[in-house]
């Protein structure tokens, strides 16, 4: 990939024939060595792809990503007739001819498919139901079915099937014609396919809930655990995100990204800004140097984003090495694997050097260099950069433990790479209207989280900020510094809130039913007390700060704030008649009364 | 309840209501073993290499390698089949430095020329909350001229659909643009009013509704709205070249050859072949003769290789 990126995408035509074969051979060698690396070190391959991981990040991703997919679909409603029906931009014959792939040959409007098996190559190529039929009634029916299947996917109902159906139906819209695509649509399509490979219904889904409920009520002596899932689809998602950023950063090769004016222009375009007044703000920010700096940071951060993957791998290695769980391998295998990595870098350096020789113009550089010198410089740079990185890291590790810990925590940490991304995308969303691009980009960060991080996020959400001086939270002297630090301290120093007490009867059936509540209690806010005065199967709750007990539907409603799975019922509580209904929905879910 | 009965309940309550959440009981660290592990590994390796090949520019010294790798992996077909076609030229190589709009006008049967207000210039409501895909499509019509003919055809059909079946005469396009002033100029005035910028205009090629393919409201849609059918031959269709068309063309050629053979046989019998015995029938279309006239499905922001024009790339 790096080698190809070294080749200028829009460079003037140059006769490369003298070295084309050599460069091709070098790149084949590089690819071969990269694959051979994992043959020599299969334990790394297993750790990279084949381990089982906590299903919660995948489950959360399914919900958030699914909501973005649904939002994007609903956003298409005003254009549905124009984009997809035969009363819109394309008559199906034209759309099929231009975008129907093999279908345009395999299917005839009057005579259908030539053979029944023609359907297989038709499906293998780009396929849209609308290439076969596109009258408004049909398109609206497919649209409704698509929204229903995406909703089922979000809820986790027959998750594998609903995901497959969602993928197929969503692509029926995207495969019809690409005229309406935006960057967000491409991210959506690509990750929906990866979602198809993921067992993302094992957490936060009705499928998982029904399975665990069944097991618990059937006599399980522990609250049934969530089943771990294969890590590889999530790792492919991480790789995909790294490719998106690295590719877009590398392709930003125009002058404006180097002279720092790119963001000024982007924010001043009629097609994007939220309000024309922003142009004054953008001009001011450019004048004080904020936008040029942001332009360079954006380009560097995007291009270097794959280092986030390196950082993750490094942190994992350090964690396991200190725990003594990192696999030991024979010295020869280790040495050979290092040699293969060196060969990959060597091949890239060779092609990079040749590229410099062909494309470098001696008159244009800031320093006078001949082509040979430019070639040597690039080749040495490609060789030296990883050597320098590895050497510096090893030196820090051996000699500077504090700095090493800082590098691991920050430079190699997700907080830097994802944190910058979150800020960048939020700023984009405030300043520009680019559809659901921002939402889908933030959604695809979720597969980078671990199960423990998702759990910590829920607990933080359900916790309270410690008071100044309470616990580990420092007490600052009043002043501007304290004002600045206060929001950060409120985020960093948290303590548990008072629990909701669930009073239950002592019989086994009642215990099992209230135990079901734990599967929905993501912030660990529930506390259970046996009370012989509570009737069997009844839900009785004492909310924090309240002395009276809530019973039945009122108890169910009282639990809404701490059970995220029921947050969608909040609007019901605003309507007087529906308030009790929301409580009863909670009771019914847990077979309580 | 007796004490003996309470004790098991109490243990159960401790286990179910107070014990830490249970872990997945399976102690197997790996998701797959044996053949399953091998098959999944092969798929992962394939997907990863295909993805890297697909997302790297096939240019310069990497061109031949990239092309051969794509050929071996058939990565283009794989990416299309999985709907993973992608290109990430967002604001690349530069963001646009001009605001472009396409004014769309129709010339009616009465000779009147009307602006259909399809461009967003001066017409967008601010704050701009709800994403306007039509604005993007309007800009794309300029960046990718090949979309202009189908768009004009739709304008003709839509006009006919909403005017009792009567099509307009012609659709005219005018490209309009304003240039974003460079920062140095904008700083001098601390910003600028985008609607005070000079509006440049350039008339583009127009399209006749009678002759542009698919610019006529077809009879099945006319029937939906109760319009009279088009006169015979008025609908300008496109050549579809389906399997049935090819089979029919082949059958026609075969029939013609047989006829020629029969004639030749008769003529040879008379000692002379007829003039023009070599058929002037066009050959049957084969394979890929019918390539798309419009851009193939693209990835990223602008579709295929079309991200960013001379001026720059979009979102």
TrEMBL record, chain A:
Principal subcellular localisation of the protein: membrane
Keywords of the record: Membrane, Transmembrane, Transmembrane helix
Transmembrane segments: 23-40, 60-84, 137-157, 164-181, 236-258, 335-360, 376-396, 416-446
PANTHER family registered for this protein in UniProt: HTTM DOMAIN-CONTAINING PROTEIN, SPORULATION-DELAYING PROTEIN SDPB
Source species of the chain: Nannocystis exedens
Domain HTTM-like: 50-363
Cell compartment(s), UniProt: Endomembrane system
Origin superkingdom: Bacteria
Record's bilayer topology term: Multi-pass membrane protein
GO CC, alphabetical: endomembrane system
InterPro entries in alphabetical order: HTTM-like, Sporulation_signal_mat
Stored SMART domains: HTTM
Claim: Cell division is one of the keywords in the record: no
Protein name: HTTM-like domain-containing protein
Automatic annotation (TrEMBL), chain B:
Spans annotated as Disordered: 254-315
Superkingdom classification of source: Bacteria
Regions of compositional bias (Gly residues) in chain numbering: 297-315
Protein name: Uncharacterized protein
């Amino acid at each position: 990939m790096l080698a190809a990126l070294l080749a200028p995408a829009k460079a003037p035509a140059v006769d490369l024939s003298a070295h084309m074969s050599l460069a091709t051979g070098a790149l084949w060698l590089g690819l071969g060595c990269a694959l051979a690396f994992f043959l020599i070190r299969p334990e790394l391959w297993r750790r990279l792809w084949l381990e089982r991981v906590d299903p919660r990040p995948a489950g959360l991703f399914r919900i958030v990503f699914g909501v973005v997919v649904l939002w994007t679909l609903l956003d298409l409603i005003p254009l549905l007739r124009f984009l997809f029906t035969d009363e819109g931009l394309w008559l199906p014959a034209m759309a099929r001819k231009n975008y129907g792939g093999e279908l345009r040959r395999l299917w005839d409007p009057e005579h259908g498919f030539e053979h029944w098996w023609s359907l297989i190559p038709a499906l293998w190529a780009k396929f849209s139901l609308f290439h076969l039929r596109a009258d408004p009634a049909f398109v609206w029916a497919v649209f409704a079915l698509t929204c229903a299947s995406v909703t089922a996917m979000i809820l986790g109902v027959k998750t594998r099937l609903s995901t497959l159906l969602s993928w197929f139906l969503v692509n029926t819209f995207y495969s019809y014609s690409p005229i309406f695509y935006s960057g967000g649509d491409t991210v959506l399509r690509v990750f929906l396919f990866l979602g198809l490979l993921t067992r993302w219904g094992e957490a936060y889904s009705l499928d998982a809930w029904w399975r665990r409920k069944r097991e618990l009520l059937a006599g399980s002596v522990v609250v049934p655990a969530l089943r771990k899932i294969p890590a590889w689809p999530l790792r492919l998602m991480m790789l995909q995100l790294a490719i998106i950023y690295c590719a877009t950063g590398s392709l930003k090769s125009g002058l404006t990204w180097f002279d720092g004016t790119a963001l000024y222009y982007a924010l001043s375009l009629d097609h994007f800004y939220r309000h024309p007044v922003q142009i004054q703000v953008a001009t001011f920010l450019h004048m004080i140097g904020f936008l040029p700096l942001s332009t360079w940071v954006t380009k560097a951060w995007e291009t270097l984003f794959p280092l986030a993957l390196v950082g993750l791998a490094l942190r994992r290695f350090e964690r396991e090495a200190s725990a003594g769980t990192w696999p030991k391998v024979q010295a020869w295998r280790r040495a050979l694997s290092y040699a293969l990595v060196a060969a990959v870098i060597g091949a890239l350096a060779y092609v990079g050097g040749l590229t410099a020789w062909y494309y470098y113009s001696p008159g244009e550089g800031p320093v006078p260099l001949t082509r040979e010198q430019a070639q040597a410089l690039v080749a040495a740079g490609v060789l030296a950069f990883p050597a320098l990185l590895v050497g510096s890291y090893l030196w820090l590790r051996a000699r500077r433990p504090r700095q090493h810990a800082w590098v691991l925590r920050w430079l190699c940490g997700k907080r830097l790479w994802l944190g910058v991304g979150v800020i960048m995308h939020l700023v984009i969303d405030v300043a520009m209207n680019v559809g659901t691009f921002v939402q889908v980009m933030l959604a695809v960060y979720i597969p980078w989280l671990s199960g423990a991080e998702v759990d910590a996020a829920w607990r933080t959400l359900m916790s309270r900020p410690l008071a100044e001086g309470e616990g580990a939270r420092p007490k600052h002297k009043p002043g501007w510094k304290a004002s600045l630090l206060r929001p950060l301290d409120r985020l960093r120093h948290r303590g548990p809130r008072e629990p909701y007490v669930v009073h239950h009867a002592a019989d086994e059936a009642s215990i099992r039913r209230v135990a079901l509540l734990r599967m929905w209690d993501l912030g660990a806010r529930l506390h259970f007390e046996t009370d012989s005065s509570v009737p069997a199967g009844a839900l009785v709750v004492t909310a924090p700060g309240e002395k009276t007990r809530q019973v039945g539907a009122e108890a169910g409603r009282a639990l809404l704030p701490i059970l995220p799975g029921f947050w969608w019922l909040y609007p019901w509580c605003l309507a007087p008649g529906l308030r009790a209904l929301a409580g009863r929905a909670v009771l019914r879910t847990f077979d309580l009364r | 309840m007796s004490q003996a009965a309470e004790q098991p309940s109490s243990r159960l309550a401790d286990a179910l209501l107070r014990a830490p959440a249970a872990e997945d009981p399976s102690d197997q660290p790996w998701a797959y073993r044996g053949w399953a592990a091998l098959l999944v590994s092969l798929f992962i390796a394939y997907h990863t290499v295909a993805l890297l090949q697909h997302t790297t520019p096939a240019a310069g010294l990497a061109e031949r390698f990239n092309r051969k790798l794509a050929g071996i992996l058939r990565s283009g077909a794989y990416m299309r089949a999985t709907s993973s076609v992608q290109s990430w030229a967002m604001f690349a190589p530069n963001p646009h430095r001009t605001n472009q709009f396409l004014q769309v006008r129709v010339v009616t049967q009465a000779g009147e020329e009307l602006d259909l207000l399809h461009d967003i210039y001066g017409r967008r409501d601010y704050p701009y909350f709800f994403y306007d895909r039509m604005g993007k499509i309007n800009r794309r019509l300029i960046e990718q001229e090949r979309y202009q003919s189908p768009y004009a055809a739709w304008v003709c059909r839509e006009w006919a659909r909403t005017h009792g079946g009567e099509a307009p005469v012609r659709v005219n396009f005018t490209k309009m643009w304003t240039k974003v002033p460079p920062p140095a100029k904008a700083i001098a005035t601390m910003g600028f009013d985008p609607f005070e910028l000079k509006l440049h205009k350039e008339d583009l090629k127009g399209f006749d509704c009678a002759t542009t393919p698919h610019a006529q409201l077809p009879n099945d849609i006319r029937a939906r709205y109760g319009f009279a059918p088009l006169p015979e031959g008025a609908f300008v269709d496109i050549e579809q070249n389906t399997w049935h068309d090819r089979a029919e063309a082949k059958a026609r050629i075969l029939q013609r050859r047989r006829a020629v053979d029969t004639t030749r046989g008769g003529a040879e019998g008379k000692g002379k072949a007829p003039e023009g015995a070599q058929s002037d029938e066009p050959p049957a279309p084969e394979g890929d003769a019918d390539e798309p006239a419009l851009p193939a499905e693209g990835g990223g922001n602008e579709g295929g290789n079309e991200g960013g024009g001379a001026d720059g790339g979009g979102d």
